[in-house]
Specification:
- It is a single chain.
- It contains eleven helices and eight strands.
- The chain is an alpha/beta fold.
- The protein has one domain: Vaccinia Virus protein VP39 (Rossmann fold, 3-Layer(aba) Sandwich), CATH 3.40.50.150.
- Strands 1, 2, 3, 4, 5, 6, 7 and 8 form an eight-stranded mixed beta sheet that branches.
- Helix 5 links the parallel strand 1 and strand 2.
- The chain is globular and about 45 Å long.
């Protein structure tokens, strides 16, 4: 095999193809479902394996709202990025628990406003690192690292983060669809506090999560999520407000996701109403 053939073989798994599974990078465990890959499947992506699709199909069959929740989470995330770059003039973003690349990535939305915005994607799933590096090979303003939300130092002490993010200048931290995957024992309020502590004055924290707003479906879907994926808590608004302690909330505060800065594409009502919340806070 020539060196060119060897190179193609080593990266073959990164390229889109038929529905069958691609060759698997050696660091990826396909014996267990991944939240990131199952989420990718629900969104209609191709970066998942049979074990993830089994879980995704079961979830979609039992919770038809799953696809709409995933899509509307991405929609509110994009609206938040536009606000951060256009209105708040933020030029540095750390996206924690970013998941697999999908249409309308944070850096793509940010760069529609300003191509100079620097973005660091963070995820603990090794397949995210591999796909992110392939996607961003020619991008000098965006990078991806492997680190764990529970270890804040591993995120901000990473050499790549230090190259892209100047912590003395205002930057934004995105924690979209990630804190709801922490159990009470993992202390999501404490995790959010450690993220806020990293922000300088003028920095922002965006959070979006499953929401228990009194809709009985929240309890049902939570039970299914915990059973099938081992994660996915639907917490009340009161349980989530402490994520923003000490921050100045951007109007309208922490609300139902579709009520946060809706645009012409945001449905007035949807199957996800009362099931998903979002908010953005600024550090004084």
């Amino acid at each position: 095999m020539s060196s060119d053939q060897g190179s193609r073989a080593s990266t073959e798994w990164m390229h889109p193809g038929a529905r069958k599974d691609r060759p698997v990078p050696p660091t990826v465990d396909t014996s267990k479902p991944s939240i990131a890959r199952a989420y990718d499947y629900v969104l209609g992506g191709k970066d998942n394996f049979a074990v993830d699709r089994i879980v995704g199909d079961k979830l979609l069959a039992m919770v038809p709202e799953s696809m709409a929740i995933a899509q509307e989470n991405r929609a509110v995330l994009r609206r938040a990025v536009r606000y951060l770059v256009h209105d708040a003039k933020i030029r540095q973003i750390v996206d924690i628990g970013s998941g697999l690349p999908t249409a309308g990535n944070v850096h793509e939305v940010a760069h529609e406003e300003d191509p100079s915005v620097r973005v660091v994607y963070v995820d603990k799933d090794p397949i995210v690192l591999a796909h992110g590096r392939a996607l961003l090979a020619d991008n000098d303003t965006t990078t991806v690292i492997t680190a764990d939300l529970l270890d804040t130092d591993s995120i901000f002490n990473d050499p790549a983060t230090k190259r892209y993010i100047n912590e003395d200048e205002p930057f934004a931290i995105i924690a979209s669809a990630i804190l709801h995957h922490l159990s009470d024992e993992q202390d999501p309020v404490g995790v959010a506090a450690r993220l806020r502590d990293r922000l300088p004055s003028g920095g922002y924290l965006f959070v979006s999560n499953f929401l228990n707003n009194g809709d009985p479906r929240a309890v049902t879907i939570e039970s299914i999520m915990l059973d099938k994926l081992g994660a996915g808590r639907f917490r009340t608004r009161e349980e989530q407000l402490p994520y923003f302690e000490g921050l100045e909330m951007v109007e309208p505060g922490f609300v139902i996701a579709n009520e946060w800065h809706p645009d012409q594409h945001t449905p007035v009502d949807s199957v996800t109403r009362n099931l998903y919340g979002a908010g953005l806070g600024r550090k004084p």
